[in-house]
Task: structure prediction
Amino acid sequence: MHIKVLFICYENICRSPMAEGIFTDFLARYNLLHCFSVSSAGTVSYQQGSPPDERAIAVLSSLGIDISCLRARSILDLDLYSFDWIFVMDHENYEEISSFFIGHERPRIHLIMDFVEGRSGEEVSDPYYGSSKGFDRVMHDLVIASEQILFKMFEHYPYLTAQSTRS
Result:
């Protein structure tokens, strides 16, 4: 089984590509890349085809994660029904994505912090108009969230534990 995960923010140049890179890095560390398909997108297409914000690229490079090859895209370019799990950064993203599934069975849609103890329902705020410190904070939150999302995946898909070998 291939588990399809999508991370969503507003323009897909800061938070969601950072989440895609961090979560993919966790999967690589657990040797689980073959079990997942990980993507990111924005709720709007203003930045279509653009690379991630330079500050997002820089902050993740400090962790050894390279997201410079990612390109912004819109949820309108995707079949949202094909994803098993969708993680959004804020309440506005949540409402936007949920509206696509009114009256239809939908994938699991969560705020990205929902599986972090004591932080369920919290947003990861957009660092775009702030300083590089905002990108540091977002990176920290996304590392914590990605680890907890992976642990939730182990609970939900018990076979992943047998497939995993932490490196």
